[in-house]
Amino acid sequence: MICLRKAVENYLTMRRSLGFKLRNTGYNLRHFVSFMEEQKASVITTELALRWAQQSQDVQPATMAARLSFVRSFARYWSAIDPRTEIPPMGLLPYRTKRATPYIYSDHEIR
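Request: output the structure for the sequence above.
Response:
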């Protein structure tokens, strides 16, 4: 698993050198690798990524979708090195942010 930890650090270094900040990504990917170690898994699978993303039931659906997105991006990178890697498909944890209803000022309020 040390290989995967090192791969996460290399991935973050590469992305940061391209200008991405990746604060949440780094934190979450390190936790994902720890989760993989606990599960004694050596290959990223869709089932494992999904289980990790949904691990905490007290978080918002948007957080779960973001977690899976972090793993998906890393899995895409890692699949070039380890062809056994599964890339979680888009839309597995669909979530759309709900926009606030816009307030339309009346003519009276504008005057």
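DSSP finds five helices and no strands in the chain.
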